[in-house]
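Protein folding task:
====================
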Amino acid sequence: MTDHDERLRYRLLTGPDDAEFCRRVSTALAEGYRLHGSPAMTFDGQRVVVAQAVVLDAAPPTVTPA
């Protein structure tokens, strides 16, 4: 796995409030991310723009028996 392929532990998904944004959040959840905090919404004068933070929990450390 290269650095480019490594999944980030924190992501902030942003975009217009539409079905595509919902699909992006749903995909992140299916990949093991979980929602972090509440979504944010604003209006840019033309459309509603939303943001949702997602986090990926670290894998538990592996313990090798002595």
The two ends are 29 Å apart (CA to CA). The mean pLDDT is 89. The longest strand covers residues 34-43. Residues 10-55 form one domain.
